[in-house]
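queue> holo job accepted (S-adenosylmethionine)
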Amino acid sequence: MTMQTKIKNQPIKDSYNRRIDYLRISITDKCNLKCVYCMPSKGLEYFKEAEILTDEEIVRFIRIAHNHGLRKVRITGGEPLMRKNIISLVSSIKETGIRDLSLTTNGITLSKIAGDLKAAGLDRVNISMDTLKAARYKTITKGGDINLVRESIKEAERAGLTPVKINVVPIRGINEDEISAFASLTFKENYHIRFIEFMPATRNGIWRKERCVSSEEVLEKISTLGNLDSFEFRGRGPSRNYRLKGAAGIIGIISPLSDHFCGFCNRLRLTADGKIRPCLFSMEEIDIKTPMRNNATDKDIDKLFLHSIKVKPQRHLLNENTGATRIIKTMSKIGG
Ligand code: SAM
Ligand code: SF4
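queue> job finished
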Protein backbone atom coordinates (compact mmCIF):
# COMPACT_ATOMS: atom_id res chain seq x y z
CA MET A 1 0.00 0.00 0.00
CA THR A 2 1.44 3.39 -0.93
CA MET A 3 1.71 6.28 1.53
CA GLN A 4 -0.76 8.17 -0.61
CA THR A 5 -3.41 5.43 -0.24
CA LYS A 6 -2.89 5.35 3.52
CA ILE A 7 -3.57 9.06 3.87
CA LYS A 8 -6.51 8.79 1.52
CA ASN A 9 -8.12 6.09 3.68
CA GLN A 10 -7.84 7.84 7.03
CA PRO A 11 -11.23 8.23 8.79
CA ILE A 12 -12.60 11.76 8.97
CA LYS A 13 -13.27 13.41 12.31
CA ASP A 14 -16.46 15.38 12.83
CA SER A 15 -16.84 18.75 14.56
CA TYR A 16 -16.74 17.00 17.95
CA ASN A 17 -13.57 15.02 17.31
CA ARG A 18 -15.39 11.72 16.70
CA ARG A 19 -13.88 9.46 14.04
CA ILE A 20 -16.64 8.60 11.57
CA ASP A 21 -15.91 5.24 9.99
CA TYR A 22 -19.22 3.35 10.15
CA LEU A 23 -22.19 3.48 7.77
CA ARG A 24 -25.54 1.83 8.33
CA ILE A 25 -27.41 1.54 5.13
CA SER A 26 -31.07 0.71 4.63
CA ILE A 27 -31.33 -1.08 1.30
CA THR A 28 -35.11 -1.48 1.31
CA ASP A 29 -38.04 -0.27 3.37
CA LYS A 30 -40.03 -3.41 2.57
CA CYS A 31 -40.50 -6.07 5.21
CA ASN A 32 -42.06 -9.49 5.52
CA LEU A 33 -43.01 -8.83 9.17
CA LYS A 34 -44.82 -6.01 10.94
CA CYS A 35 -43.26 -5.81 14.38
CA VAL A 36 -45.48 -3.85 16.74
CA TYR A 37 -42.68 -1.52 17.84
CA CYS A 38 -41.37 -0.79 14.36
CA MET A 39 -44.14 -0.69 11.76
CA PRO A 40 -47.40 1.20 12.02
CA SER A 41 -50.30 -1.21 12.51
CA LYS A 42 -51.88 -0.14 9.24
CA GLY A 43 -48.66 -0.97 7.42
CA LEU A 44 -46.55 1.44 5.42
CA GLU A 45 -46.66 2.94 2.01
CA TYR A 46 -43.40 1.60 0.62
CA PHE A 47 -41.08 3.58 -1.61
CA LYS A 48 -41.55 2.98 -5.31
CA GLU A 49 -38.78 0.96 -6.97
CA ALA A 50 -37.43 4.07 -8.73
CA GLU A 51 -37.14 5.95 -5.45
CA ILE A 52 -34.75 3.42 -3.95
CA LEU A 53 -31.02 3.65 -4.57
CA THR A 54 -29.82 1.16 -7.17
CA ASP A 55 -27.02 -1.32 -6.44
CA GLU A 56 -24.65 0.82 -8.51
CA GLU A 57 -25.55 3.99 -6.57
CA ILE A 58 -25.08 2.25 -3.21
CA VAL A 59 -21.71 0.82 -4.22
CA ARG A 60 -20.57 4.13 -5.68
CA PHE A 61 -21.37 5.94 -2.44
CA ILE A 62 -19.59 3.31 -0.34
CA ARG A 63 -16.54 3.45 -2.60
CA ILE A 64 -16.36 7.24 -2.15
CA ALA A 65 -16.87 6.96 1.63
CA HIS A 66 -14.22 4.21 1.79
CA ASN A 67 -11.73 6.67 0.33
CA HIS A 68 -12.42 8.73 3.45
CA GLY A 69 -11.72 5.89 5.84
CA LEU A 70 -15.09 4.13 6.02
CA ARG A 71 -14.32 0.75 7.60
CA LYS A 72 -17.59 -0.73 8.70
CA VAL A 73 -20.83 -1.09 6.80
CA ARG A 74 -24.02 -2.57 8.21
CA ILE A 75 -26.75 -3.47 5.75
CA THR A 76 -30.22 -3.12 7.20
CA GLY A 77 -33.77 -2.15 6.27
CA GLY A 78 -36.73 -2.90 6.27
CA GLU A 79 -35.82 -6.50 5.79
CA PRO A 80 -32.60 -6.43 3.74
CA LEU A 81 -32.98 -10.01 2.53
CA MET A 82 -36.09 -8.93 0.62
CA ARG A 83 -33.91 -6.99 -1.78
CA LYS A 84 -33.39 -8.64 -5.14
CA ASN A 85 -29.79 -9.61 -5.88
CA ILE A 86 -28.76 -9.27 -2.26
CA ILE A 87 -25.89 -11.72 -2.76
CA SER A 88 -24.34 -9.77 -5.62
CA LEU A 89 -24.89 -6.48 -3.76
CA VAL A 90 -23.01 -7.87 -0.75
CA SER A 91 -20.23 -9.01 -3.02
CA SER A 92 -19.95 -5.60 -4.74
CA ILE A 93 -19.91 -3.77 -1.39
CA LYS A 94 -17.16 -6.04 -0.07
CA GLU A 95 -15.12 -5.44 -3.22
CA THR A 96 -14.89 -1.72 -2.37
CA GLY A 97 -12.48 -2.78 0.40
CA ILE A 98 -14.82 -2.46 3.40
CA ARG A 99 -13.16 -4.30 6.25
CA ASP A 100 -16.20 -5.21 8.35
CA LEU A 101 -19.45 -5.93 6.51
CA SER A 102 -22.44 -6.99 8.57
CA LEU A 103 -26.18 -7.27 8.12
CA THR A 104 -29.19 -7.02 10.43
CA THR A 105 -32.08 -9.32 9.57
CA ASN A 106 -35.22 -10.70 11.11
CA GLY A 107 -33.94 -14.15 10.12
CA ILE A 108 -37.12 -15.26 8.36
CA THR A 109 -35.34 -16.17 5.11
CA LEU A 110 -31.68 -16.16 6.17
CA SER A 111 -31.24 -19.92 6.62
CA LYS A 112 -31.46 -20.58 2.89
CA ILE A 113 -28.75 -18.12 1.88
CA ALA A 114 -26.45 -17.82 4.89
CA GLY A 115 -23.65 -19.77 3.15
CA ASP A 116 -23.98 -17.74 -0.07
CA LEU A 117 -23.85 -14.48 1.87
CA LYS A 118 -20.69 -15.61 3.65
CA ALA A 119 -19.12 -16.62 0.36
CA ALA A 120 -20.03 -13.22 -1.10
CA GLY A 121 -18.06 -11.49 1.65
CA LEU A 122 -20.51 -10.87 4.48
CA ASP A 123 -18.66 -11.08 7.79
CA ARG A 124 -21.39 -11.20 10.44
CA VAL A 125 -25.11 -11.01 11.09
CA ASN A 126 -27.39 -9.63 13.76
CA ILE A 127 -30.67 -11.49 13.98
CA SER A 128 -33.65 -9.85 15.67
CA MET A 129 -35.69 -12.08 17.95
CA ASP A 130 -37.61 -10.46 20.79
CA THR A 131 -39.00 -13.56 22.43
CA LEU A 132 -38.21 -17.26 22.75
CA LYS A 133 -41.91 -18.19 22.68
CA ALA A 134 -43.56 -19.13 19.41
CA ALA A 135 -47.00 -17.70 20.15
CA ARG A 136 -45.56 -14.45 21.49
CA TYR A 137 -43.29 -14.15 18.45
CA LYS A 138 -46.35 -14.40 16.23
CA THR A 139 -48.04 -11.63 18.19
CA ILE A 140 -45.05 -9.27 18.25
CA THR A 141 -44.25 -9.71 14.55
CA LYS A 142 -47.88 -10.03 13.42
CA GLY A 143 -47.62 -13.53 12.05
CA GLY A 144 -43.94 -14.55 12.00
CA ASP A 145 -42.77 -18.15 12.52
CA ILE A 146 -40.05 -18.33 15.19
CA ASN A 147 -38.84 -21.72 13.91
CA LEU A 148 -37.55 -20.04 10.76
CA VAL A 149 -35.53 -17.64 12.90
CA ARG A 150 -34.13 -20.43 15.07
CA GLU A 151 -33.06 -22.29 11.93
CA SER A 152 -31.41 -19.13 10.60
CA ILE A 153 -29.43 -18.68 13.81
CA LYS A 154 -28.08 -22.23 13.43
CA GLU A 155 -27.32 -21.76 9.72
CA ALA A 156 -25.59 -18.43 10.34
CA GLU A 157 -23.31 -20.18 12.85
CA ARG A 158 -22.64 -23.06 10.47
CA ALA A 159 -21.81 -20.60 7.69
CA GLY A 160 -19.36 -18.73 9.93
CA LEU A 161 -21.32 -15.47 10.07
CA THR A 162 -20.06 -15.15 13.61
CA PRO A 163 -20.30 -14.10 16.30
CA VAL A 164 -24.05 -14.28 15.80
CA LYS A 165 -25.63 -11.33 17.55
CA ILE A 166 -29.24 -11.51 18.66
CA ASN A 167 -31.09 -8.21 18.96
CA VAL A 168 -33.78 -8.01 21.62
CA VAL A 169 -35.94 -4.95 22.29
CA PRO A 170 -37.33 -5.41 25.81
CA ILE A 171 -40.73 -3.75 26.17
CA ARG A 172 -42.66 -3.60 29.42
CA GLY A 173 -45.79 -5.67 29.31
CA ILE A 174 -44.66 -7.46 26.15
CA ASN A 175 -41.42 -9.38 26.69
CA GLU A 176 -39.49 -7.89 29.62
CA ASP A 177 -40.14 -11.12 31.55
CA GLU A 178 -37.73 -12.91 29.14
CA ILE A 179 -34.63 -10.80 29.77
CA SER A 180 -33.08 -13.44 32.04
CA ALA A 181 -33.96 -16.27 29.66
CA PHE A 182 -32.18 -14.49 26.82
CA ALA A 183 -29.16 -13.72 28.99
CA SER A 184 -29.02 -17.38 30.09
CA LEU A 185 -28.50 -18.45 26.48
CA THR A 186 -24.98 -17.03 26.72
CA PHE A 187 -23.95 -19.67 29.28
CA LYS A 188 -23.89 -22.34 26.60
CA GLU A 189 -23.88 -20.52 23.29
CA ASN A 190 -21.34 -18.05 22.01
CA TYR A 191 -24.07 -15.58 21.10
CA HIS A 192 -23.94 -11.86 21.68
CA ILE A 193 -27.31 -10.96 23.12
CA ARG A 194 -27.92 -7.27 22.59
CA PHE A 195 -30.67 -5.58 24.55
CA ILE A 196 -31.72 -2.47 22.64
CA GLU A 197 -33.73 0.13 24.47
CA PHE A 198 -37.18 0.69 23.04
CA MET A 199 -37.12 3.93 21.04
CA PRO A 200 -39.92 6.08 19.75
CA ALA A 201 -40.68 5.26 16.13
CA THR A 202 -43.42 7.61 15.11
CA ARG A 203 -46.85 6.60 13.97
CA ASN A 204 -46.57 3.15 15.47
CA GLY A 205 -48.76 3.97 18.40
CA ILE A 206 -47.26 1.62 20.96
CA TRP A 207 -44.35 3.76 22.16
CA ARG A 208 -44.72 5.04 25.71
CA LYS A 209 -41.89 6.07 27.99
CA GLU A 210 -43.28 3.73 30.67
CA ARG A 211 -42.80 0.79 28.33
CA CYS A 212 -39.06 1.44 28.09
CA VAL A 213 -36.93 -0.90 30.16
CA SER A 214 -33.83 1.00 31.25
CA SER A 215 -30.34 -0.44 31.08
CA GLU A 216 -30.20 -0.47 34.89
CA GLU A 217 -33.31 -2.62 35.02
CA VAL A 218 -31.95 -5.00 32.38
CA LEU A 219 -28.66 -5.31 34.27
CA GLU A 220 -30.45 -5.82 37.57
CA LYS A 221 -32.43 -8.74 36.15
CA ILE A 222 -29.38 -10.30 34.54
CA SER A 223 -27.21 -9.99 37.62
CA THR A 224 -29.50 -12.42 39.46
CA LEU A 225 -28.04 -15.11 37.15
CA GLY A 226 -24.46 -14.76 38.38
CA ASN A 227 -21.51 -12.41 38.53
CA LEU A 228 -21.51 -10.00 35.66
CA ASP A 229 -18.10 -8.87 34.45
CA SER A 230 -17.84 -5.72 32.48
CA PHE A 231 -16.31 -6.80 29.20
CA GLU A 232 -14.60 -4.17 27.07
CA PHE A 233 -16.71 -1.62 28.92
CA ARG A 234 -17.04 0.86 26.14
CA GLY A 235 -15.62 0.28 22.70
CA ARG A 236 -16.09 2.66 19.84
CA GLY A 237 -19.80 1.98 19.61
CA PRO A 238 -23.00 2.32 21.55
CA SER A 239 -22.93 -1.09 23.25
CA ARG A 240 -21.85 -1.63 26.87
CA ASN A 241 -20.70 -5.22 27.01
CA TYR A 242 -20.76 -7.75 29.84
CA ARG A 243 -20.14 -11.44 30.40
CA LEU A 244 -21.76 -13.65 33.00
CA LYS A 245 -19.10 -15.56 34.92
CA GLY A 246 -18.36 -18.80 33.06
CA ALA A 247 -20.51 -17.86 30.07
CA ALA A 248 -19.49 -18.43 26.46
CA GLY A 249 -21.34 -15.46 25.04
CA ILE A 250 -21.58 -11.74 25.65
CA ILE A 251 -24.39 -9.46 26.73
CA GLY A 252 -24.60 -5.98 25.24
CA ILE A 253 -26.76 -3.12 26.43
CA ILE A 254 -27.66 -0.35 24.02
CA SER A 255 -29.62 2.45 25.57
CA PRO A 256 -29.89 5.61 23.52
CA LEU A 257 -32.48 7.18 25.79
CA SER A 258 -31.34 6.47 29.34
CA ASP A 259 -27.62 6.46 28.63
CA HIS A 260 -26.30 9.16 26.31
CA PHE A 261 -23.82 7.38 24.05
CA CYS A 262 -23.62 10.16 21.49
CA GLY A 263 -20.08 11.04 22.58
CA PHE A 264 -18.95 7.65 21.22
CA CYS A 265 -20.98 7.74 18.01
CA ASN A 266 -18.94 6.84 14.94
CA ARG A 267 -21.71 6.40 12.39
CA LEU A 268 -23.74 7.84 9.58
CA ARG A 269 -26.90 6.38 8.09
CA LEU A 270 -27.99 6.16 4.48
CA THR A 271 -31.73 5.77 3.94
CA ALA A 272 -33.20 3.47 1.32
CA ASP A 273 -34.18 6.51 -0.77
CA GLY A 274 -30.67 7.91 -0.79
CA LYS A 275 -30.46 10.42 2.06
CA ILE A 276 -27.58 10.61 4.49
CA ARG A 277 -28.77 10.97 8.08
CA PRO A 278 -25.91 12.22 10.23
CA CYS A 279 -27.81 10.94 13.30
CA LEU A 280 -30.71 8.48 13.66
CA PHE A 281 -32.70 11.37 15.09
CA SER A 282 -31.37 14.07 12.75
CA MET A 283 -33.47 16.98 11.63
CA GLU A 284 -31.21 17.23 8.59
CA GLU A 285 -30.91 14.77 5.70
CA ILE A 286 -28.48 15.11 2.81
CA ASP A 287 -29.79 13.89 -0.52
CA ILE A 288 -27.23 12.02 -2.60
CA LYS A 289 -29.63 10.29 -4.99
CA THR A 290 -30.79 13.40 -6.85
CA PRO A 291 -27.27 14.66 -7.53
CA MET A 292 -26.16 11.16 -8.57
CA ARG A 293 -29.01 11.00 -11.04
CA ASN A 294 -28.11 14.45 -12.33
CA ASN A 295 -24.61 13.46 -13.36
CA ALA A 296 -22.80 14.58 -10.19
CA THR A 297 -19.11 13.76 -10.26
CA ASP A 298 -17.42 11.71 -7.54
CA LYS A 299 -15.99 14.99 -6.27
CA ASP A 300 -19.52 16.40 -5.86
CA ILE A 301 -20.62 13.32 -3.88
CA ASP A 302 -17.43 13.54 -1.91
CA LYS A 303 -18.38 17.06 -0.82
CA LEU A 304 -21.84 15.89 0.28
CA PHE A 305 -20.28 13.08 2.30
CA LEU A 306 -17.91 15.51 4.02
CA HIS A 307 -20.74 17.96 4.63
CA SER A 308 -22.83 15.26 6.34
CA ILE A 309 -19.95 14.60 8.74
CA LYS A 310 -19.51 18.30 9.39
CA VAL A 311 -23.17 18.77 10.36
CA LYS A 312 -23.40 15.63 12.50
CA PRO A 313 -24.98 16.88 15.73
CA GLN A 314 -23.16 16.58 19.03
CA ARG A 315 -26.03 14.56 20.50
CA HIS A 316 -29.66 13.66 19.96
CA LEU A 317 -32.35 15.64 21.72
CA LEU A 318 -34.77 12.83 22.42
CA ASN A 319 -34.89 13.47 26.12
CA GLU A 320 -35.58 17.15 25.76
CA ASN A 321 -39.07 17.30 24.28
CA THR A 322 -37.86 19.22 21.27
CA GLY A 323 -40.09 17.35 18.88
CA ALA A 324 -37.11 15.33 17.67
CA THR A 325 -39.15 12.15 17.99
CA ARG A 326 -41.60 13.41 15.42
CA ILE A 327 -39.02 13.41 12.69
CA ILE A 328 -38.24 9.70 12.85
CA LYS A 329 -39.85 8.37 9.69
CA THR A 330 -40.09 4.84 11.05
CA MET A 331 -37.24 2.50 11.86
CA SER A 332 -37.81 0.42 8.76
CA LYS A 333 -37.39 3.44 6.47
CA ILE A 334 -34.24 4.74 8.11
CA GLY A 335 -32.67 1.42 9.04
CA GLY A 336 -32.79 0.89 12.82
N1 SAM B 1 -35.66 -6.17 9.57
C1 SAM B 1 -34.41 -6.30 10.18
C2 SAM B 1 -34.52 -6.74 11.62
O1 SAM B 1 -35.62 -6.71 12.17
O2 SAM B 1 -33.52 -7.09 12.19
C3 SAM B 1 -33.54 -5.05 10.09
C4 SAM B 1 -34.23 -3.72 10.28
S1 SAM B 1 -34.80 -3.39 11.92
C5 SAM B 1 -35.47 -1.77 11.73
C6 SAM B 1 -33.25 -3.16 12.75
C7 SAM B 1 -33.32 -3.22 14.25
O3 SAM B 1 -34.09 -2.13 14.73
C8 SAM B 1 -33.99 -4.49 14.78
O4 SAM B 1 -33.12 -5.16 15.67
C9 SAM B 1 -35.19 -3.98 15.52
O5 SAM B 1 -35.47 -4.74 16.65
C10 SAM B 1 -34.78 -2.56 15.87
N2 SAM B 1 -35.92 -1.69 16.10
C11 SAM B 1 -37.00 -1.47 15.31
N3 SAM B 1 -37.86 -0.62 15.89
C12 SAM B 1 -37.32 -0.29 17.08
C13 SAM B 1 -37.74 0.56 18.16
N4 SAM B 1 -38.88 1.22 18.11
N5 SAM B 1 -36.93 0.66 19.23
C14 SAM B 1 -35.76 -0.01 19.30
N6 SAM B 1 -35.30 -0.82 18.31
C15 SAM B 1 -36.09 -0.96 17.23
FE1 SF4 C 1 -39.49 -5.59 9.80
FE2 SF4 C 1 -37.26 -5.50 11.22
FE3 SF4 C 1 -39.13 -3.63 11.54
FE4 SF4 C 1 -39.62 -6.09 12.38
S1 SF4 C 1 -38.02 -4.70 13.15
S2 SF4 C 1 -41.02 -4.81 11.16
S3 SF4 C 1 -38.58 -7.28 10.91
S4 SF4 C 1 -37.95 -3.96 9.72
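queue> Residues 111 and 151 are 6 Å apart (CA to CA).
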